[in-house]
Design a protein that fits this description.
This protein is of the alpha/beta class. 37% of the residues lie in helices and 24% in strands.
Length: 196
């Protein structure tokens, strides 16, 4: 995520707080970690973890990610095994992107259908599970949604293509204005995402 001491980071869909310790180590005691989740049961476990470790720079909130506003601009946003479960995932991504400082990063890690034969086998089961559990939508492709917001996009896959990590960097203001000056027909990425 490229986090440094003193940065602010949001763990969007923090669940029981699995990533809080690592994020807190990355930003140090002068940084700030925000964690949000819509599940009160999971959030209670994250709050117990925060209390047990006396983390004063970790702030947890129960809310819908599409409605959340951090108390300060963010240097990083992490969505770990949560993005595909959000029914309004595009609105969540745009909301998080708006709160990100220029140069900040969004990292999304989740499961996906493996390519080829694996997809043909897994798709019916994945769709059934999606309808009957909280398992995420296997057809969501956040790397495409992130590509509408930035040209600084990276993607990697692991476990035979069944998991991915995609990351986007919010361009600095001068990079956006230089690119727009070169091509008068450039549509702002936020408008492209909203048009979807």
């Amino acid at each position: 995520m490229g986090l440094r001491r003193g940065d602010s980071v949001l763990d969007l869909g923090c669940g029981t707080g699995t990533n809080l310790s690592r994020l807190r180590q990355a930003v140090g005691p002068s940084g700030h970690v925000f964690g949000i989740d819509i599940s009160p049961g999971m959030l209670r476990r994250a709050q117990a973890l925060r209390s047990a470790n006396h983390w004063r720079n970790v702030e947890l909130s129960e809310c819908d990610a599409a409605d959340y506003t951090a108390s300060r601009p963010l240097d990083g946003v992490l969505m770990s095994l949560s993005y595909n479960t959000m029914p309004n995932h595009r609105a969540v991504l745009r909301r998080a992107w708006q709160q990100l400082r220029p140069g900040g990063r969004i990292v999304i890690m989740d499961a996906k259908l493996p390519p080829g034969f694996g997809e043909r086998i897994m798709l019916p089961l994945s769709l059934w599970l999606m309808k009957h559990t909280m398992l995420g939508n296997p057809l969501i492709e956040p790397w495409k949604e992130l590509a509408a917001l930035t040209k600084q996009l990276g993607m990697s896959e692991c476990l035979f293509g069944s998991y991915y990590i995609c990351r986007g960097i919010k361009q600095l203001a001068e990079e956006r204005s230089d690119r727009a000056a070169d091509d008068e027909t450039v549509v702002a990425p936020a408008y492209q995402a909203a048009a979807e």
